[in-house]
Amino acid sequence: MILLTRSGTFFINAEMQQYLGISWAENPEVATKKCIAVYPGLQSMTLSAAQTMNAVFDTSLTSDESTLLFKETASFSVPRGLGVWRKPAAGGIYRSDGGQFVFISGQPFRYNSNQLRANMEYMLANFFHESKTGVNTTSNSIMINNYKLEQNYPNPFNPGTTISYQLAAAALVDLTIYNSMGQRAATLISKQQSAGYYSVVWDASGFSAGVYFCRMKAGNDVKVIKLALVK
User: Fold this and answer.
1) pTM
2) What is the rounded CA–CA span in Å between residue 231 and residue 1?
3) Is the Cβ–Cβ distance between 70 and 54 less than 8 Å?
């Protein structure tokens, strides 16, 4: 399993935290500015912008089977962990090489895409022993034959959530958040986009808790999902 996300404390419960051998540090959601690789074969990743609402942990791991992969050296008085890999010596239930868990803290689209891809390919090949055969290196519009608005994740959420959608053809896309009264609360996307898969993060900091609706209009196609913001 590879988990790459911000707000890591939201996704990783106490049992998973113990399994990874990490101890959370600083505030649950902080801004980080660097991602330095400390494991041979992995690349440090530059950022397009600061990683916000990010979770960091102590670089001293509590499990002998866990290995530090990435650290942050710019934002705190001491280095903090951003990536960790747990490989149990006994393997998993179904595979002798199973039970592996990689956690990398941060929003993937704010890491350099080439460096992130190289790191993912390295981990898949050298940690999980998965073949790269079949990796799609062509247009992201391949095999898309309809318009789709995915349910946001996480949901319920506080304060950020990811909304993903797909376009079967190029279209003028309007992705808008409405409150329960039908009033426009936020515009996430309003532009022409080519066919493909997309995702956007709605940071609802400053919005009141409650039910919201996300409406995607792509050409003549309209999709709507319900979102729940909790405080």
Assistant:
1) 0.58
2) 30
3) no
